[in-house]
C-alpha cells in the first residue's frame, strides 16, 4: 500500500461496512454508494490515487464515470477538506473561451456529508428516511438535477456552460435542488450486509395532511 486514504477520523461512522461486493471504510461511504445506486448513478470506489502539488497522495472516495464527478465523503464534525479543495481546483476547467473539456466545466468535486434528518421524523417518517446532504469544496454552490434528455441524475453548478454532464443537453429548463430542499432521499445500508438492489423500501413520505401539519402549527414555536 503506497496510498494513504484520507481517513474520516475516529467517529461512529468510521466502521468498515460492506455493501454489494465492496467493503467501505465507513458506514457513511456505504450509504452514499446506496444513495448513488438509488439514483441510478454509476460509480467507482477509490479508482485513482491523485498526487497533489505538495507531493501528498490522495484517494478520493467515488468517481462517477458518466458524469466526470468526484464525491469525497466526510463524516460529522469539522472535516479536513484541503485535499478535496485542491482536487477540485486542479481538475476544474481552464478553457479560455468555449469549454473543450470532456465534461462541461471540467471534472467536478462534491463533498458528501451525513444525511439531513427528515423534518417530520417524530410523527411521520420512519427514521431511515433522511435526505442527502452535500457541499461544494471550492467554487459556487452545487445543485442536484436530473437531465430530461438522458435521464441521468447529477450534481452541477449554476454557471455556464450549464449543460448535462453526461449528454451535454441544456439543463436550463430543469428543476434544481439544494440539500435543504430535502429532495434526494438518502439510502442507509442496514446491517452491513446490504447488497445492490436490496434497498430498504422507504415508501412515500407522509403528506402534511396525513400528519395534520399546517403552516400555522409549525409557526407556533417561539
Ligand atoms: Zn473546459
Ligand atoms: Zn443528459
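-> sequence recovered:
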Amino acid at each position: 500500500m503506497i496510498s494513504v486514504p484520507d481517513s474520516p477520523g475516529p467517529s461512529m461512522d468510521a466502521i468498515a461496512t460492506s455493501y454489494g461486493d465492496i467493503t467501505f471504510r465507513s458506514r457513511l461511504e456505504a450509504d452514499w454508494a446506496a444513495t448513488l445506486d438509488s439514483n441510478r448513478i454509476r460509480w467507482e470506489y477509490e479508482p485513482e490515487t491523485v498526487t497533489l502539488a505538495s507531493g501528498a497522495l490522495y484517494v478520493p472516495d467515488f468517481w462517477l464515470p458518466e458524469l466526470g464527478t468526484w464525491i469525497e465523503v466526510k463524516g460529522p464534525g469539522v472535516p479536513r477538506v484541503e485535499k478535496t479543495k485542491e482536487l477540485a481546483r486542479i481538475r476544474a476547467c481552464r478553457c479560455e473561451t468555449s469549454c473543450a473539456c470532456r465534461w462541461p466545466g471540467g471534472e467536478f468535486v462534491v463533498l458528501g456529508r451525513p444525511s439531513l434528518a427528515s423534518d417530520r421524523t417524530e410523527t411521520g417518517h420512519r427514521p431511515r428516511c433522511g435526505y442527502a446532504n452535500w457541499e461544494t469544496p471550492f467554487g459556487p454552490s452545487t445543485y442536484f438535477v436530473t437531465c430530461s434528455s438522458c435521464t441521468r441524475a447529477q450534481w452541477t453548478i449554476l454557471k455556464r456552460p450549464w449543460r448535462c454532464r453526461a449528454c451535454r443537453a441544456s439543463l436550463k429548463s430543469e428543476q434544481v435542488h439544494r440539500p435543504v430542499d430535502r429532495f434526494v432521499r438518502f439510502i442507509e445500508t442496514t446491517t452491513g450486509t446490504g447488497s445492490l438492489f436490496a434497498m430498504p423500501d422507504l415508501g412515500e413520505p407522509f403528506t402534511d395532511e396525513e400528519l395534520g401539519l399546517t403552516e400555522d402549527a409549525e409557526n407556533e414555536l417561539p
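Residues 27-38 form the longest helix (12 residues).
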